Amino acid sequence: MADSLSPGRRGNGGGKPNKDRTVAEIEKLARQRANRRKSAHEFKKKREHEIKMNEKKGRPGDVDFQRMIRRFRKRAMNPAQEHSASGMLKINVVVRKRPVSESEIARKDYDSVSCSNPCVYVHHCKLKVDGITKFLDNVNFQLDHAFNEFSDNQEVYEHTAKGLVNFAVDGGRATCFAYGQTGSGKTFTMAGVQGLAARDVFRLVNSSEHIDKGLEVYCAFFELYGGRCIDLLHDRRVCSIREDGKGRVQVEGLQEIIVSDEDELLQLIERGNGVRTTHATEMNSDSSRSHAICQIALRKLSSRAGSEPFGKLSLIDLAGSERGQDTKHHNRQRRGESAEINKSLLALKECVRALDSGSSHVPYRTSKLTMILKDSFSSNARTVMISCVSPVASSADHTLNTLRYADRIKEKAVRPLVQRPSITNGDLSDVSCSDSEFDSADGKEEESRDFDDEEEDSELSMARRSSPPPPTPDASEDKAKNRKQKQQQQARDLVQAKRLTTQLQRHTPAKASAASPAPPGSNYKQQQRRGRPTPRISPSPKYPNEASASETRSEHSSGSNVMHKLSSASSSSTSGSESSRKPPSSIQAPGSSSKAGRGSGVTKIQAPSSRRKQWEDPAKNPPKLREPLQSQNHSNVHNSKIGNKSSSNQREESPEVVNFHDVVAKLVDMEEDVLSAHMKTIQKNADLLTEEGVLLSKVQGSDVVDYDIEEYAERLDAIVSSKLKMFQDLHAKVTRFRKHLEMDGVAQKLVQD
Ligand SMILES: Nc1ncnc2c1ncn2[C@@H]1O[C@H](COP(=O)(O)OP(=O)(O)OP(=O)(O)O)[C@@H](O)[C@H]1O
């Protein structure tokens, strides 16, 4: 090849092998290319082998992610601990992971959840903004117990509901919930718990310790479906829920059945479960669409009819939770169902949290479910929440939602955890364990012993697919180096932009608190201070009800900027509490706490400088609120902003104050508008950046031979035009907003004068 390519050699005349520099270069490039092809070929072969091995082991699906998950389990997971005795916990929150099902295997879904008692790790499998590089976002939660796919119902029961049965027989109010995404194993778990509890109730009631109490066992089984209460043991008769004058919640028409032994109780439970309302949903072809409540009441023989039972055990299989996006193909009835389900789940969470924190106010009236469970939130109550999760990667968002729900309930008792770093496909140097290392731990086959180690180079090259070829050692070296640096910078910018977008998405008014709702009395920042890991926030929407609740909450937070100002300016005419003095301007990115070790820092969305000044110097200008925002009902927050204007207090205010209120009210709307436009712009820009990265890699990728430069230019043109328009629109909005801010300053001055 060299001979045919080097006419210079013949022209040299001396016959000495004095190769022309260009020819040598071409030869070198050809060699490098051949080497690249060879290693790419080897990588491909090994990957194919790994895919086959995975399939043989019954775990088809993305081979790279599965490898990263195995490495994480091997290298980065805390070792499992023994289950601790938890009989006396007021709230016991556990997680149960079910095995991967046949249908999931058939659609090549794979296990992406790891349980290592008491921790559970969700390996969120993601692509970087370049659209090629795979990485794991590992989110961990620590609950009271974590049960993996090998735990059976007996084991789960031993550490959850068993203590509740003892508690009920001792005269307490005990409640066990199974909560989770549809198809995550709630009914499976609760059926097991109900059976085992039925056995233990009779064992205990008839034991020498309790026989003197003369307890009789009664059972009622009903469901809450679409806001209606249906007696499952009496031909689905509809009952109504009322609160009597003494504050006792009664289910009118619900009939308890007295049972004399375990078999009878089991039959009733089976009968009730058999007639529950079920429908096919996107996630589960036989989804229970109702909350099923099995109440086992223990009454003394001597007690009067209609009196409160001595002890009560409620076993509740909650309806499957769904995200808003899962319901998009539902008809109106299904959507209504989902909204109702999510509303009651949110209410339940708030009540259990209130119980856990010992709050005197439990908002049980918020939903029928919580009304019925009123006495489960009393001081003489114990609760177990079993969070059921599906193990598969396609359900990671749901799993995170379920675990966040559990985490929020348990937040006061959960200890801080050190978050592990994400594992990236291109970041393998510190995670070098191989398949075989992992498998041999299980005593399984070792066919791919050193695959991973050899593969790392190939994976790195895969991760850098869009990088330029290696620099040449001649005069063009500097040029190539510069080019490489420039491209690396571009790639970093892309990643940075995406990261920023994700962080900001968490703080988009509607989403920020949807991802991490902060109910009254709880403080998100307190969590940060405690160093407790805040689970990563996925950008996907949460339960519709949480979204709506958090929208009002975000109204609270974004509106509070203005509320501070308004209150400080018109404090002379207000007589409200001054309890909320904290500057609400900066929102810390979830997971950005240094202790939590996640995220790269703190994202602050700062208020306009004129307002910041007031917060920075509260002594000079103490912000006053008419009523403490913390204690307001969320839905009242907006009303209070507007409503205050027309209160009797306000009617006597000067025209300047009234005008100021108008300006401020408008400012609140504009602020939200600008913030949301800004978020949208960033999101769109990040999407366009991703597209640009892919576009570039199609032209500049190391393995690209043919490309269409016209198509490239055309698409780039469209992207740039779209960006221009997008930024112009945002600019116009910001300009209008700034003008209004000036007006606001003038109005405030008038009021102060
Ligand atoms: N721990 C487990 N071991 C084996 N199989 C399980 C386990 N958990 C659940 N399953 C199986 O998974 C499927 C779905 O479980 P199940 O019906 O209990 O889900 P669900 O959460 O109650 O769903 P939905 O809320 O839609 O009613 C069932 O076929 C069940 O047998």
TrEMBL record:
Segments forming domain Kinesin motor: 90-412
InterPro entries: Kinesin-like_fam, Kinesin_motor_CS, Kinesin_motor_dom, Kinesin_motor_dom_sf, P-loop_NTPase
Keywords: ATP-binding, Cytoplasm, Cytoskeleton, Microtubule, Motor protein, Nucleotide-binding
Main location: cytoplasm
Extent of Polar residues compositional bias: 421-435, 547-561, 629-649
Residue ranges of the region described as Disordered: 1-64, 417-657
Listed Basic and acidic residues bias regions: 17-30, 48-64, 613-627
Location in the cell: Cytoplasm, Cytoskeleton
Amino-acid positions noted as binding ATP in the UniProt annotation, renumbered to this chain: 180-187
Ranges of compositional bias, category Acidic residues: 448-459
Coiled coil: none
Biased composition (Basic residues): 31-47
Signal peptide: none
UniProt keyword annotation of ATP-binding present: yes
Compositional bias per record (Low complexity), positions renumbered to this chain: 567-586
Family according to the record: Belongs to the TRAFAC class myosin-kinesin ATPase superfamily. Kinesin family.
Name of the featured protein: Kinesin-like protein
